[in-house]
Structures are given as C-alpha cells and as structure tokens.
Amino acid sequence: MITVEHLAKAVGEEKMPVLQDVGFQLEPGELVAVLGGSGSGKSTLLRCLALREKWDRGNFRVDGTDIFGNVFTGKRKIRREWAYLEQNAELNPNRTALKNVLIGQSAQTPLWRMVTGMVRSDDYMGAMDELDALGLLDKAKMKTSQLSGGERQRVAIARALTHGAKVILADEPVTGLDPKSAENVMETLRRLCKETGLIVVTVLPIELAERFATRIWVLEDGRIKHDVKGRRLTVKERMNL
Ligand SMILES: Nc1ncnc2c1ncn2[C@@H]1O[C@H](COP(=O)(O)OP(=O)(O)OP(=O)(O)O)[C@@H](O)[C@H]1O
C-alpha cells in the first residue's frame, strides 16, 4: 500500500506551485493513468514519486515504511523497488535486449557488474523468463537498436521487473508508437498488474487510459481534480483535457 499526503512542489525563483496538496492511496494491482492539460503537473508528479525531484512538503509511506522518516532505508526502498521509465527508454543500443535487461540501470546494478558485464546463471534465467513473459524471447539476442519502439519499451519493462520493480512510473510510455505496439505495451502492463500485483502510474492519452487503466487521475493546476475508478470519464471530467 502506498500513501501520499499533502504533496507540494514549487519551481523556479518565483516558487511557482506545480503540485499542491496531492494525496492518494494505491493498492497492489492498480494501473493509474495520469491525465491533464499541458503544464498541469503530470511529469512533475511522476518525478516526485520517483524521488527525482525534491518534495517541498508531504508524507510518503510505502508498505508501512515512512520514506522521509527513514532517510536511508526509505529512499533506498524507492530506488531499488520502483522503476521510472521515460518516454524513450534509456537502453544501450549496442547491447542485446538480454544484456540490457541483465545489466539494468545504474541505481539497481552493482558497479562491478556494470563494468565487467558478468552475470549469474539464475539472473540469466530470470531475465529470459521476463523477456518470454513480454513476448520478446526471439528478440533476446538482438541489439536494441534493431528493435521497434514498442519492443524497446517492453525491454525496459522486462528490465524493471527483472530488477524487482514493484512499482513502475512511466511518463508517456507509448508516445510515438504505432497503435498496435502501443496496445501491446498497455496490454502487457495491464496483465502484469493483474497477475503480479505490480502498480503502474503512467501518463497516457485518454483513449488508452479509458481502455487499460483501472483508475484515472485528472490533474488541474497541480491538484488531482478527479479520481475515477473503474469507469470512463464523464463529459464534465474530460472538459479541460
Ligand atoms: N524545473 C522547473 N523549472 C521551472 N518550471 C518548471 C520546472 N519543472 C516544471 N516546471 C513547470 O511546471 C509546470 C508543470 O510541468 P510538468 O512538466 O509537470 O507538466 P505536464 O503536465 O507534464 O506538461 P506536458 O503535458 O506539457 O508535458 C509547467 O508549467 C512547467 O513549465
């Protein structure tokens, strides 16, 4: 269970408020789509949750751990167990899909492994399992530069899962993908949430949000204006989108 209370963030010299009194609880298996007009604070919210931005104010608890109360264990928990996926997955184009999954991101991988590229056999099997689950087994030995955008995004998801991600924060993970690939990525995330209890919070276009999300947040002026579960948005709720 994730609990956020009174999250606030202001930016720039004039301290312009970008997030104001944001609060919510999240349960395992939820797939949350974050919607809102340009500048409403969607990316900032994801970056704050990933601890890539400092919070000005707010409480943050994950599975009973007070993230800011336990300076060391709290932040480490987020860095180890949460993955932040940017729009264009940060993969090494010259390495195979499998190597990208195994080596992981610097926050999750010991330095010696990044330098030597050495892996344990159970890690290898784990990575192959994740690639298989994401329909990428036949692409495991291909360089990621040869994969499509949707396949690369799924490699990034496989990498996050192999490294134990319980929460994936994804900023526009399907932007730029063709409709079939976008559906494919979303179907994969939806299935993982249902089967494994993974939590996903992601910025999505409204059409995909209404098809795949279990919950929709509409942000306006840095606040969650609407928090909708298990149904489409009403005309009023989608008014400023
Ligand atoms: N570091 C920063 N310095 C100055 N302004 C910032 C900074 N970070 C965000 N902002 C401003 O905060 C507001 C919210 O930004 P954010 O990127 O979170 O919005 P968004 O909803 O993701 O927008 P978009 O849909 O256009 O990507 C914007 O007006 C943006 O210009």
What does this structure look like?
This protein is of the alpha/beta class and 241 residues long. α3 (97-103) runs parallel beside α6 and α6 runs parallel beside α7. The chain has eight helices and ten strands. It has a six-stranded mixed β-sheet, sandwiched between helices. The structure holds adenosine-5'-triphosphate. Adenosine-5'-triphosphate is lined by residues 11-12, 18, 36, 38-44. This is Phosphonates import ATP-binding protein PhnC 2.
Strand order of the largest sheet: 6-7-8-3-9-10
Q: Which hetero ligands occur in this complex? A: adenosine-5'-triphosphate
Q: Profile the largest sheet.
A: 6 strands, mixed
SS-based class: alpha/beta
Total of domains = 1
Morphology call: globular
Cα(first) to Cα(last) distance is 29 Å
In CATH, what is the class?
Alpha Beta
Low-confidence stretches: none
The level of helicity is: 25-40%
CATH architecture: 3-Layer(aba) Sandwich
Element pattern in H and E: EEEHEEHEHHHHEHEHEE
Q: Do you know the CATH topology?
A: Rossmann fold
Treating each run of at least 4 consecutive H or I residues as one helix, how many helices? 8
Organism: Paenibacillus albidus
GO molecular function: ATP binding; ATP hydrolysis activity
Protein name: Phosphonates import ATP-binding protein PhnC 2
Keywords: ATP-binding, Nucleotide-binding, Transport
Characteristic key phrases:
241 residues, alpha/beta, Rossmann fold, six-stranded mixed beta sheet, 35% helix, binds adenosine-5'-triphosphate, MetN_ABC_transporter-like, ATP hydrolysis activity, ATP binding, AAA+_ATPase, transport
